[in-house]
Amino acid sequence: MRRTPTAAIHLCIILALLAVPALLASSPVRAQEATPSAAPVTVVASGLTNPRGFAWGPNGTLAMAMAGSGGETRIPVSGGFTLRIGLSSSVVTVADGCTAPLQVGLVSTHWEETRWIWGAMDVAYLGDELYVLLGGAGASWRSPSSFSGVYKVNMNRTMNLVADLSTWLPANRPSFIAPDFNPDGSLYGLVATGDALLVTEAVGGQLIRVTPAGEISRVADLSEGHPVPSGVAVD
Q1: What is the DSSP string of the chain?
Q2: Mean pLDDT of the chain
Q3: What is the pTM of this model?
C-alpha cells in the first residue's frame, strides 16, 4: 500500500517525539545555581487610598499623592462614561509607618466603567517647594469650579494654582486627537528638572513644561501612534 505524504509526516513527528526522552536521558544536566534571595521588603505605610507619585524633600520628608476614591456625586456623561466625583483626594507625608495630611479635600474623579481614578496624581520638589499635579478636574470632568494643573503647597497648608492646564490644554491641542482625548487632559507624571517642572499628559501624548511663574509650554508632541506616556525620567 502506498503511504500518503500526510501519513509520512505524521510518522516523522511521532518518531521525533519518541526520540526526545532518549536525548534528554543521555544528555548531562547541570544543576542551576540558586538565585540569591532578595532583600526583605519593608512596608512603610499601608491603607493608602489609590496612592500615586511620591517624592523625597530636601530634608528627607517623603510626600505622596493619593488620588482618592471619587465620591457620591454620580454623573452619567454618555454611554460607557459614568463619573463619580467627590473630594476624597489628598497629599500626605509618610514617616514611621504613618501618614500625616498636607492637603485634604481635593477633587477625585472615578470613571466607573474603567475603574480609573484621577485626583492628586504626583508630587515634586523644586528646591524647597512642593508642587502637586491635580487631574480629573475641570469642565470636561464635570467639575467646572476646579482646575486640572500644577499647584504649589504653601507652608500654611494652602495651595496656589501655578499652571492652569484646564485652560491651556484646549487651546494647545496635540497633532493627533485620540478617541478618548479629554480637553482637561489625562495628567499623570510630574518631575522637577533645573528651574522648572515637567508634566506628562498621557492620552494627549504631550510633555509639558511649567515654571514656578506659571509659564506653560509644550516640550514634545508624542501623540502620533497614541503611545500614552504616563511618566518621565530626567537624566
Answers
A1: -PPPHHHHHHHHHHHHHHHHHHHHHHS--PPPPPPPPPPPP-------SSEEEEEE-TTS-EEEEE-----SEEEEEETTEEEEEEEEEEEEEEETTEEEEEEEEEEEEEETTTTEEESEEEEEEETTEEEEEE-S-BGGGTBTTS--EEEEEPTTS-EEEEEEHHHHHHHS--SS--TT--TT--EEEEEEETTEEEEEETTTTEEEEE-TT--EEEEEE--TT----------
A2: 85
A3: 0.81
